[in-house]
Specification:
It is a single chain. This protein has 347 residues and is α/β, with parallel strands linked by helices. It has two domains: 198 residues, Alpha-Beta Complex (Quinone Oxidoreductase, Chain A, domain 1), CATH 3.90.180; 135 residues, Rossmann fold (3-Layer(aba) Sandwich), CATH 3.40.50. The protein is 25% helix and 25% strand. It is built from ten helices and 18 strands. The longest helix has 12 residues.
Length: 347
């Protein structure tokens, strides 16, 4: 067996990662090695590429959205079968604080001191993955692990955001999804599966609006100058009870605030770097703003269950190592309808 593998590594901050040959990692005590099935490309990867060099030790394999088959285990690991498929929960916490004890490692009290998956430790864009603990693995059963890869970030994040909004999404309410990309197209399906709400989708790309309609959106609109009025008119003047913003720039945040209903919830999920001014006289009464991050282990299991029950289906674009740079360019330009996934076995 070869001792080397391909990996997509960030070697210098401010530059694109490179495909390199590195040794296949050996699992130490308590660790698990997976043979990679798929690893999704995420907009937040671009933040990692350009992060302050002091944030992460380099070189570092990127990719926090990954699935694979158990290939080897370290000493002390029990209950895993070689060849079984698992997804990797990416929001690694300390495992000891109160949130971690409840499965909410996404809000670990010591998060900034814990090197995370692809944010301090090597991630999933390699032929093999080293996972720090079995507690960060979620069984996939018989589902396709390549198609399931986007659930590990895009899926868990959208599920977590929708779960936070369920109490506001009763019959007769409206949810607006801004940005029908890798996360937004899954969000539409989760809203359709879990809520009775009317769904409005907003995106700059007509083909993504077609996708949104096909996936269950009741109304799909371009973000032109009159879109806020159209959404207000389509909700009887009341506005949207929940706004899920998967872009997060100044324009989308402003749109979300303009269409938010009284007692509504504006959720900023996208990492577009925008700023949302909030003041008493201009923001919706009794409304709230949240910044959902990843989700809990329970959220990940929940979204995998929806996939296994055929209630959601990530639309995946498979790419190989030699297509990664080009695919990131397309993603940054907003030209991917779905989620791109690196498949190391792809020719």
């Amino acid at each position: 067996m070869t001792t080397m593998m391909r990996a997509y590594q960030l070697r210098e901050a401010g530059h694109m990662p490179e495909v390199v040959e590195i040794p296949i990692p050996e699992p130490g005590p308590g660790q698990v090695r997976l043979r990679t099935a798929g690893a999704g490309l995420c907009h937040s990867d671009l933040l990692v590429f350009n992060a302050n060099p002091s944030y992460y030790p380099l070189p570092m394999t990127i990719g926090h959205e990954a699935t694979g088959w158990v290939d080897a285990v370290g000493s002390g690991v029990e209950g895993l079968t070689i060849g079984d498929a698992y997804g990797v929960y990416f929001a690694w916490g300390c495992g000891h604080c109160t949130p971690c004890a409840h499965g909410a490692e996404n809000v670990c009290h010591n998060a900034y001191q814990v090197p995370g998956f692809a944010t301090g430790r090597d991630g999933g864009m390699a032929e093999y993955i080293l996972v720090d603990s079995p507690r960060h693995l979620v069984p996939l059963g018989d589902v396709d692990p390549i198609t399931a890869a986007p659930l590990m970030c895009a899926g868990i994040t959208t599920y977590h955001a929708v779960a936070q909004a369920l109490d506001r999404l009763k019959p007769g309410t409206t949810a607006t999804v801004i940005g029908v990309g890798g996360l937004g197209h899954i969000a539409i399906q989760i809203l359709k599966a879990l809520t009775p709400a009317r769904i409005i989708a907003v995106d700059t790309q007509p083909e993504k609006l077609d996708q949104a309609r096909r996936l269950g959106a009741d109304l799909a609109l371009l973000p032109d100058a009159g879109v806020a009025d159209l959404i207000r008119a389509g909700t009887g003047g009341l506005g949207s009870n929940v706004v899920l913003d998967f872009v997060g720039n100044d324009a989308t945040l402003a749109l979300g605030a303009r269409i938010l209903a009284f007692a509504g919830l504006q959720e900023i999920v996208g990492v577009g770097g925008g700023t949302l001014p909030v003041n008493f006289l201009e923001f919706a009464r009794d409304a709230s703003v949240t910044l959902p991050y990843a989700g809990t282990i329970s959220d990940l299991r929940g979204v995998v269950d929806l996939f296994a029950s055929a209630l959601i289906h990530p639309e995946v674009i498979q790419v190989g190592f030699d297509e990664l740079d080009q695919t990131y360019d397309l993603m940054e330009a907003g030209k991917l309808a779905g989620r791109a996934v690196l498949v190391p076995s792809r020719a």
